[in-house]
Amino acid sequence: MLKIEHLNAGYGDLQVLWDINLEIRSGEVVALIGSNGAGKSTLLWTLSGLLKPMSGSIIFAGQSIGGVSPDRIVSLGLTQVPQGRRLFAGLTVKENLLQGAYSRSDKADVAQDLDFVLELFPRLRERLNQPAGSLSGGEQQMCAVGRGFMARPKLLMLDEVSLGLAPIVVDAIYEAIGKVRARGMTVLIVEQDVQIALEQADRGYVLDVGSLIMSGAATDMLANPKIRAAYLGI
Ligand SMILES: Nc1ncnc2c1ncn2[C@@H]1O[C@H](COP(=O)(O)OP(=O)(O)OP(=O)(O)O)[C@@H](O)[C@H]1O
Ligand SMILES: [Mg+2]
Predict the structure, then answer these.
(1) pLDDT tens column, 70-113
(2) Is the shortest distance between the CB of 16 and ligand 1 below 6 Å?
(3) CB–CB of 171/152 below 8 Å?
């Protein structure tokens, strides 16, 4: 579904990502882990078309998307739930959720998907007509993830959805991710919380100062002493 080869990217002259090679197959959940500043978000921004690659190729659903406009990439089926949520604080929860579906032409199914999202996150149903800015942090994250689902993407990329949230909220969000996965959505999870990410994922990649230094089955990575020492502190 997604194949990245020899990707180099960054900001202006500042190169952040070095020779990235990564593949995601249809139906997989893949975790990308790495410390602060490793370049995880930079990779997602590049995949979303918000940053132009310096070189290398990104093939998504059979098409080259390196440097393609963000709108076009969303319409091809690649959606990012950005780090820090980025909701429209003044719009209602419902308006934010529907905003996720803006590029869809199957409007009849949108109402059904809204219902599905509200079943996943009943707390959002109770707050549908409230401004998103008035929600708690956990509710805002549910809204951001729900908005990502509303795009009904082929590949959903989640950037640090667990950051700063209570365990019960994290559980609710990851349970929802499990349910969309069961519907056939492919998911890329970016997390600093290595344990949570690898427990959900089939495979993982480790990004370290802009380079991928390890990849493998998630269960192997969780058992790997180097990963445990470096990222789990055990
Ligand atoms: N807009 C920007 N302009 C210049 N440099 C940037 C910009 N955004 C990020 N960087 C730099 O790129 C590097 C990678 O940052 P990035 O946000 O991709 O890391 P990350 O792995 O997502 O970290 P975190 O876990 O803290 O979110 C950092 O050195 C950062 O300072
Ligand atoms: Mg980040």
Answers:
(1) 999 999 999 999 988 789 999 999 999 999 998 888 888 999 99
(2) yes
(3) no
In this prediction the pTM is 0.94
- Number of Cβ within a 10 Å radius of residue 82: 17
Return the residue matching tokens 């078309």: 49
Determine if ligand 1 sits within 6 Å of the CB of residue 203. Answer: no
Contact (Cβ atoms closer than 8 angstroms) between residue 86 and residue 50: no
41 pocket-lining for ligand 1 (C-beta < 6 Å): yes
Residues 6+ apart with CB under 8 A from 24: 1, 2, 3, 30, 155, 186, 188
Among the listed residues 19, 25, 15, 16, the one whose alpha carbon sits nearest the alpha carbon of residue 7: 19
- Cα angle 48-174-1, degrees, rounded to a multiple of 5: 40
Q: Which domains does the chain have, with CATH numbers?
A: 2-232 (3.40.50.300)
Q: In a mutational test of the pocket of ligand 1, which residue from 41, 46, 54 has the highest number of ligand atoms less than 8 Å from its CB?
A: 41
Tokens of 126: 């109770």
The finding on whether 84 has its CB within 6 A of some atom of ligand 1 is no
DSSP for 114-183, written as a single string: HHHHHHH-HHHHHTTTSBGGGS-HHHHHHHHHHHHHHT--SEEEEESTTTT--HHHHHHHHHHHHHHHHT
